[in-house]
Amino acid sequence: MAWATPSRERRVLKAGHSSIAVTLPKPWAMAMNLRPGDLVVFDQNEDGALYLKPAPAPGSPTVGAPYLVQAHDFSSPGVLERLVVGAYRVGHDTIEIRTEVPLGPERMEEIQQSARRLLGVSVVAQEPTRVLLQNFIDPSKYELPQLVQRMKMILVALLDETEERLRRRARARRLANLGEEADKVLALLVRQLFLASRDWSLARRIGSPDPRQLLEWRVVVHALEELSELLGDTAEVLHRDGSRSADPTGALAGLVGELRDGLKQVVEALMRPTLSEACDGYAQAVRLGESARATARGLSRPGRRVAAGIAARNLERGTRCLTLLSSVALDRAVAQGSEMVLAPLP
Fold first, then answer.
1. What pTM did the predictor assign?
2. Parent domain of 271
3. What's the pLDDT tens digit per position in 159-171?
């Protein structure tokens, strides 16, 4: 970041008869577009550390202010749902939809469906040309590590469903429910990050004591989101394929089991970063990626079943997400600065 300059010390200066002051680093002030006379907001940590950020500009929308979606009509399917989800993810608690043309049954059902797919959201008012949705979640009750652990459990369940389909040729039973639950948790994770970026005291309460870690958390959420899509698509492809020879060699099932074990190890290293665990997780993710690439090449050859090839490529892409997560875990462990790995000399 522009303000992370080597010159981190500032001398305390006397200001007036009884006040003291310190100067702000110029690169940081420029990055924040601060000018003389602008206001900044301070926030104090329990250990006495101070955080500051530019004060909101006059007239800027505040967190929790109603978000109004207004149009002549909403005839295109999917637009309303995405608008509702987007308003929720960026932190709005009240979402009001207005239209000049009465909403048809399909659009009303779309709004209801979008509310059901978001944790804490309900439709509190419904008229032909107006719908009001309200979020009732207290953001301080949902910590980032807790939500990441919940996503891990959902992803492990998806892998279990995929492995059962491959080994026992059994039909997947929970795909729809797992997909909806993953969408709910991911939307809440993104919402928490948006809210925490505006309120640093909230960031500390939900598991990010240093606000700069929010960028790191965003990388984690993005990797989990992509991994969820890949695993869901893999399970769905195999569910639709009725052949009993989708995995004749057992290679896919073996890869699914390895990916599940790697996911558990990497998330554990993310939540409780130690250098040894992070190094082991990273090494396992790299090995798993090499194995997945070999499996994908073998199952994507001409003459192989299409479902097996798609599943193998998805799992191979999933190992890249795992490598990204393990890299973040390694960064976190290194940032603690309290351990050292001794490698044997050649």
1. 0.79
2. 140-336
3. 998 888 887 765 6
